[in-house]
């Protein structure tokens, strides 16, 4: 079907029945896509934080047979193994199914897992339920950022994905206050209700995702040209038509990227052997996955999953005070995460990652030094209070700089054909490294004490030069700009390439877009002149 024929269909089809998306277009429609994606990430944050409060709940520990540190780590961390396999399944099937279908499958699986967790009466039941919940969450977290980035305008994309991660923090904060509030309840409701509350988020997702638009980039890449253009028009606003220069330019940019990818697309055998036809595919996959590995190795889930435990065992606080401070810290974490929303496009991805790693390294150095003196009979409490303050400051740096970028970067750095696979591989990397950190933390705190925190100071120190050397800037770029960069730039190191590291969009990409728009306009005028002559 030619473009002219689907132009007419795209403009006339809404009159043949009910308007799609309940008549919403433009900003309204973008808001509802964001509602769905942010709900998924809020659920992710809630689920990430809820077990930090449950693992120190007396009734839960009694029901589970009073597990020791190793078994506690296993119960908590096997959820991450489920998330890993969920993300890997998205890597395999997500591109075929599309963003929406994949998302819905993840929501259903996660809902089943939440119900099973709520009804668990033994360690075996809880582990199986945690694994199932993890599979669903792994699918959701691999899909939501891609769907969001592919339906967003370039100027909004970074801010919206960062906003998703702010809502992830909101979910984490909610779970801390939920478990703190229910810690005053007696019996199993103290931990079963906070787990069951996950189903509220599932209800929101099941009520919104089915009627929202599929990614226009996925539709165009898979030959659904008519629907892809209609979605581009709907996302632009009621004033837009399929003939607008901006819509035509968007469509052509996406199709050009698809064509270039198909012409150079290597097989999986070629990828494994490093033959990627000059697309930089392996390098880009590794960079995207690397941001997720780094996010875990900066030490966030040493405290996200176990902050009450850390404050009890490392600092020496009471159960109630440890829970309260963890909940208060989550509010501070949420507040400072909004600064990331303000800085993500102005400072760019590279600077935020470098600033954050440097600040987090500083915090862990001081936490290590202060905790090493908490056994001092005279000033132990003072040193413990100082360490607690730097745990709070650590969350400030992480919330501003590292909370959102690792989830955004894989959706931007990878090519269109590899974007789902790249995001899924990045998410899988997050979960397997998350599993490693969560599994070793209880044992590490019990056996190494304050020395355990030296590990995370060292990792943060290493990541500053690593980002500076090899990570290109993706802020203020169209997703197709990154494809051009890698077709032309073959070096692993980017720190000497101004275009690869500057925050502003390179001028030649802007000029190329303008030339394309001018050419389309000239072609339209010439076509109009021929019609008038006839």
UniProtKB/TrEMBL annotation:
One of its GO terms (cellular component) is membrane. The chain crosses the membrane at residues 71-93, 105-128, 160-177, 189-212, 324-345, 352-371, 383-402, 423-441, 453-471. It holds the Pfam family Sugar_tr. Keywords: Membrane, Transmembrane, Transmembrane helix, Transport. It is a multi-pass membrane protein. InterPro entries: MFS_dom (IPR020846), MFS_sugar_transport-like (IPR005828), MFS_Sugar_Transporters (IPR050360), MFS_trans_sf (IPR036259), Sugar/inositol_transpt (IPR003663), Sugar_transporter_CS (IPR005829). Residues 33-475 form the Major facilitator superfamily (MFS) profile domain. It is found in: Membrane. The keyword Transmembrane applies. It catalyses: myo-inositol(out) + H(+)(out) = myo-inositol(in) + H(+)(in). SUPFAM superfamilies: MFS general substrate transporter. GO terms for molecular function: carbohydrate:proton symporter activity. Belongs to the major facilitator superfamily. Sugar transporter (TC 2.A.1.1) family. PANTHER family: MAJOR FACILITATOR SUPERFAMILY (MFS) PROFILE DOMAIN-CONTAINING PROTEIN-RELATED (PTHR48022:SF26), PLASTIDIC GLUCOSE TRANSPORTER 4 (PTHR48022). This is Major facilitator superfamily (MFS) profile domain-containing protein.
């Amino acid at each position: 079907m030619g473009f002219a024929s689907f132009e007419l269909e795209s403009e006339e089809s809404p009159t043949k029945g009910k308007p799609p998306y309940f008549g919403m277009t433009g900003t309204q429609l973008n808001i509802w896509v964001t509602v769905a994606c942010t709900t998924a990430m809020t659920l992710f944050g809630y689920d990430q934080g809820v077990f930090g409060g449950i693992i120190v709940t007396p009734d839960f520990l009694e029901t589970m047979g009073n597990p020791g540190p190793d078994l506690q780590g296993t119960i908590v961390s096997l959820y991450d193994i489920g998330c890993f396999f969920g993300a890997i399944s998205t890597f395999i099937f997500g591109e075929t199914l599309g963003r929406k279908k994949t998302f819905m499958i993840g929501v259903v699986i996660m809902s089943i897992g939440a119900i099973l967790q709520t009804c668990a009466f033994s360690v075996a039941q809880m582990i199986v339920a945690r694994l199932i919940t993890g599979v669903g969450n792994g699918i959701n977290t691999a899909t939501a950022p891609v769907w969001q980035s592919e339906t967003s305008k370039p100027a909004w994309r970074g801010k919206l994905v960062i906003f998703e991660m702010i809502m992830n923090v909101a979910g984490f904060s909610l779970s801390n206050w939920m478990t703190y509030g229910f810690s005053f309840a007696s019996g199993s409701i103290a931990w079963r209700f906070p787990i069951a509350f996950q189903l509220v988020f599932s209800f929101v997702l099941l009520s919104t995702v089915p009627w929202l638009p599929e990614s226009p980039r996925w539709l165009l890449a898979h030959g659904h040209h008519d629907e892809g253009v209609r979605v581009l028009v709907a996302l632009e606003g009621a004033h837009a038509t399929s003939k607008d220069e901006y819509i035509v330019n968007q469509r052509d940019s996406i199709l050009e990227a698809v064509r270039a990818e198909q012409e150079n697309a290597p097989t999986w055998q070629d990828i494994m052997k490093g033959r990627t036809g000059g697309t930089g595919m392996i390098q880009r996959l590794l960079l995207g996955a690397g941001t997720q590995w780094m996010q875990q190795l900066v030490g966030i889930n040493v405290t996200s999953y176990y902050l009450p435990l850390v404050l009890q065992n490392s600092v020496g606080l009471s159960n109630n005070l440890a829970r309260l401070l963890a909940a208060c810290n989550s509010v501070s974490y949420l507040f400072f995460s909004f600064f990331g929303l303000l800085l993500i496009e102005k400072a760019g991805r590279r600077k935020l990652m470098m600033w954050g790693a440097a600040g987090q390294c500083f915090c862990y150095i001081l936490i290590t030094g202060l905790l090493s003196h908490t056994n001092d009979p005279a000033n132990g409490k003072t040193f413990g209070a100082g360490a607690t303050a730097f745990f709070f400051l650590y969350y400030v740096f992480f919330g501003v700089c590292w909370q959102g970028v690792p989830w955004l970067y894989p959706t931007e750095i990878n090519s269109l054909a590899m974007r789902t696979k790249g995001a899924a591989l990045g998410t899988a990397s997050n979960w397997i490294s998350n599993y490693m950190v969560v599994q070793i933390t209880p044992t590490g705190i019990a056996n190494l004490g304050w020395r355990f925190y030296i590990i995370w100071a060292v990792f943060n120190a290493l990541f500053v030069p690593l980002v500076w050397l090899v990570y290109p800037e993706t802020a203020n770029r169209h997703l197709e700009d990154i494809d051009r960069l890698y077709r032309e730039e073959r070096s692993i190191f980017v720190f000497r390439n101004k275009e690869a590291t500057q925050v502003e969009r390179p001028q030649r990409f802007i000029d190329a877009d303008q030339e394309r728009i001018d050419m389309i306009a000239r072609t339209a005028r010439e076509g109009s002149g021929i019609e008038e002559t006839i």
